[in-house]
Design brief:
Structural class: alpha+beta
Number of helices: 9
Distance between the termini: 42 Å
Shape: globular
Largest sheet: 7 strands, antiparallel
CATH class: Alpha Beta
Radius of gyration: 22 Å
CATH architecture: 4-Layer Sandwich
CATH topology: Phosphatase 2c, domain 1
Order of helices and strands: EEHEEEEEHHEEEEHEHEEEEHEEHHHE
Helix content: 25-40%
CATH superfamily: PPM-type phosphatase domain
Strand content: 25-35%
Length: 379
């Protein structure tokens, strides 16, 4: 939203997919923050292409499943168009492009033991996709829990998306997008990130300390005390991070802020050509950004894995419109009351509301703001 009340194009996109890859109790979430003239086109393309190209996705119908003898596998055959629907009551398309804040929320995820389904579900005790041998191998890697292979596959999906976006009709020489994705397969969580969008997880233990007798009488009916812990599922890729800076310099790039009339630094560190004042990208990894890629900006994601436990309570995935002024701990503090009330939509609304307030106080322009809040129910 511009200070002169003119509306700008929302360049954020997001996706929430239940039964991802046609596998029951597998979820895929993503937030994509576009930038540049065609940033909205870039983020929208990534939202659609990245999940479909990810080799974790099994597009074969039930007719292509053959009982051959592998690990146990629950496979869902979704209704037509189902995989593009989010659990927030709408499609995975962001809100109107005339809005600078979009929000998404999901109800509590079923536990890995849940029998809840979405569409027609069939359970195969010895299922394997027949046909394409590459798909078979990829599926086997997911089921076997081979982390190294899984990381290679997911990295290739990001690189393939980056390759194909440059072949689209819209130009991405100076446009691109971040991509932060979270894949949950039962208890296993995999986060892949390129750029400065972010994912965090909040965990807590109920306090078991016994109050003194003098305090006990005042605690009747009070809620148990909780000790919250924040886990960063991703790292912001900024040009001044030591490893990112080194790669950019080695690629003959330059890292510096914008400069004022008197040479004073303005704003964050950015990536520039060594002898030119372009592109000025404020992140060191992205999808698209052809010119920046010539000087060390890459689309390779950093990947983080974690096994979920009963102490893990909720996940927040958001564009930097949220993180610019809200540290991780503050975000958890804002979401916690809504987690206690089982109101993920309210949590999203609160994050957007508080973020907007900060932008209005600190800047003349309000950045695009997208947040996904996921409440977990891990037994």
């Amino acid at each position: 939203m511009l200070s002169n009340k003119m509306q700008k194009t929302n360049q954020d996109s997001y996706v929430c997919i239940k039964n991802f890859a046609c596998i029951k109790n597998t979820w895929f979430f993503g937030v994509f923050d576009g930038h540049g003239v065609n940033g909205h086109l870039a983020s929208d393309y990534i939202k659609q292409f990245l999940p479909s190209t990810s080799p974790f996705r099994i597009t074969s119908s039930l007719a292509n499943i053959e009982l051959l003898g592998l690990a146990h596998l629950d496979v869902t055959h979704p209704a037509k168009g189902e995989e593009t629907k989010s659990e927030c009551g709408g499609t995975s398309r962001p809100q109107s492009r005339s809005h600078t804040q979009s929000q998404s929320s999901l109800p509590s995820l079923p536990s890995p033991r849940s029998n809840s389904t979405h569409g027609t579900t069939a359970v195969f005790t010895r299922g394997i996709v027949k046909g394409n041998s590459e798909v078979r191998q990829q599926l086997a890697s997911v089921i076997s829990g081979n982390q190294a292979v899984r990381h290679i596959i997911l990295r290739d999906a990001f690189l393939k998306t980056n390759e194909t976006i440059r072949q689209k009709s819209f130009k991405t020489s100076f446009s691109g997008s971040t991509a932060v994705t979270v894949l949950m397969m039962g208890r296993q969580l995999v986060c892949a990130n390129a750029g400065d969008s972010r994912a965090i997880m909040a965990s807590c233990k109920t306090s078991i300390s016994t109050p003194s007798k003098s305090l006990a009488s005042h605690m009747v009916g009070s809620k148990p005390r909780r000790a919250w812990q924040v886990t960063a599922l991703s790292r912001d890729h900024k040009p001044d991070e030591e490893d990112e800076y080194k790669r950019i310099i080695e690629a003959n790039g330059r890292v510096d802020t914008m400069r004022g009339q008197d040479g004073e630094p303005i704003g964050p560190y950015r990536v520039w050509l060594k002898n030119g004042n372009v592109p000025g990208l404020a992140m060191s990894r992205s999808i698209g950004d052809g010119v920046a890629s010539q000087v060390g900006v890459i689309s390779d994601p950093e990947i983080f894995e974690k096994s979920l436990t009963s102490e893990d309570k909720f996940i927040v995935i958001a564009s930097d419109g949220v993180w610019e002024f809200l540290p991780n701990e503050r975000v958890v503090e804002l979401v916690t009351p809504y987690w206690e009330a089982n109101d993920p939509e309210g949590a999203c609304q609160k994050l957007v509301e508080v973020s907007v307030q900060h932008w209005e106080c600190e800047d003349e322009v309000i950045d695009d703001i997208t947040a996904i809040v996921i409440f977990l129910a891990v037994p």
